[in-house]
Amino acid sequence: MSQSVANVKARVAAISVLASATMAAAKFTVGIAIGSLALISEALHSSVDLVATLITWVVVRMSDRPADDAHHYGHGKIESLSALGVIAMLYVLAGGIVVEAYSRLREGAPPPVLSALPFVVLLADIVVNLWRARALHKTAVATKSQALAADALHFASDVLGSFAVIVGLALSGLGFPWGDAGAAIGVAVMISLLGVRLGRSTIQTLLDRAPDGVSDKASEAISGVAGVVGIERLRVRMVGPTYFIDAIVQVPRTYPIDRIEDIKRKAQAAVSGALDDADLTFTAVPVARDNESVRERIMVIARNSGLAIHHVTVHDLGEKLTVSIDLEVDGNMPLIEAHDIAHQLEHHIVDEFGTDVEVDTHIEPLEPELPHGADSSAARVEEIRAALAGFASDGVINDIHSVRVRDTDAGEVVNFHCHAAAAMSVIAVHEHVDEIERKLRRAFPSVKRVISHAEPPNAD
Known about the structure:
The strands form three sheets. Strands 7-8-9-10 form a four-stranded mixed beta sheet, covered by helices on one side. The protein has a three-stranded mixed beta sheet with strand order 1-2-3, with helices on one face. The model has no long low-confidence stretch (mean pLDDT about 80). The chain is α/β, with parallel strands linked by helices. The chain folds into four domains: about 1-205, Up-down Bundle (Alpha-lytic protease prodomain-like); about 215-285, Alpha-Beta Plaits; about 295-365, Alpha-Beta Plaits (2-Layer Sandwich); about 375-455, 2-Layer Sandwich (Alpha-Beta Plaits). The protein is about 60% helix and about 20% strand. It has helices at about 5-35, 35-65, 75-105, 115-145, 145-175, 180-205, 215-225, 255-275, 295-305, 335-355, 380-390, 425-445; strands spanning about 230-240, 240-250, 280-285, 310-315, 320-330, 355-365, 375, 395-410, 410-420, 445-455. It is a multi-pass membrane protein. One of its GO terms (molecular function) is zinc efflux antiporter activity. Pfam families: Cation_efflux, ZT_dimer. Belongs to the cation diffusion facilitator (CDF) transporter (TC 2.A.4) family. It is found in: Membrane.
């Protein structure tokens, strides 16, 4: 949680402490002076609120501490525990009020001595409590603080309780001696009802009940990320103001690791955008998609075996498939070991597609990593460029440009770009460029590798 949010919570709680202390003292003093049980009960209620607010002030500071080695989900649950403690105090108070009110009704205690003072105090109390209940509720919603929400409910109950005391005092003044005790019982009932409401939400949080609607919002946010196939499981729990979301998400098994990591980052951003304060645990499960091609499935098999393959060719002969693969292995590996690797790969492919598949594997040495080199001289680059232009004299491949030549311990590496007709097929372009590369290596034996890039004449 940000420092600014923590400061807001602490400041609102501090103001609430001052307001509780002032109004509780005023009501208690006047209640004793006129002998009103209802007003004394409301003062005691405000006193409990004062204790609760002091607890809240401490708790909101503790709950904002970051996660540590002993509290992996932070300290937010302490707000729920403090709310339960306050609820318990309220019920003890409500019970005491009911017992005392019943005793006064049974014994026929004299009504309170009325004057304008208690009504002025109660009206002032209503105004103050309406203001702070609204301020606390607004802050509790903004910060998702159960402790502040509990405080807001207490002050809302004070407003209702003050109205009840006014009614009770008015009834006593009109000649109904039971009015004051009846108002006190009304205050106790209101305290109990509000405690039930707060207790329900607090207990649900402690029992890790998923907040209403949060699972749907999180699922919608994750499902909207490109590359997500489906969601196997999604669990939500709330600790303080933070939603902790645990999701097992299906992703295409053909995707590389870096692309899956990108999906994770986008899913976290999407969930945070939908729920504000959210912590997503994203577990990716690779799955096969219905539209996977045979070549993609073979590439997955090789990748899962840690093998490098290329030139995968697949033919459907109706009654069977034929697959041809170039398998790269360490050039210094004995043939018997390389053959075992190829045989195992072929076995995995047969397991995937069934016995009606024919697999041929061409074993070749793995292309070694070329050492770092240095750019050749301008004269050497021009010599290679002129030779390439001459080899492309048939006009099919033209405009040899961007020629680069680099010297390495393994030999020269040549890169060049060229133009070919936009309507030519890739196969035709590849054949013509391959022929140019072969001619260059024959003419310059020191050239170890040639890398070409063919493009249409108007390409950017």
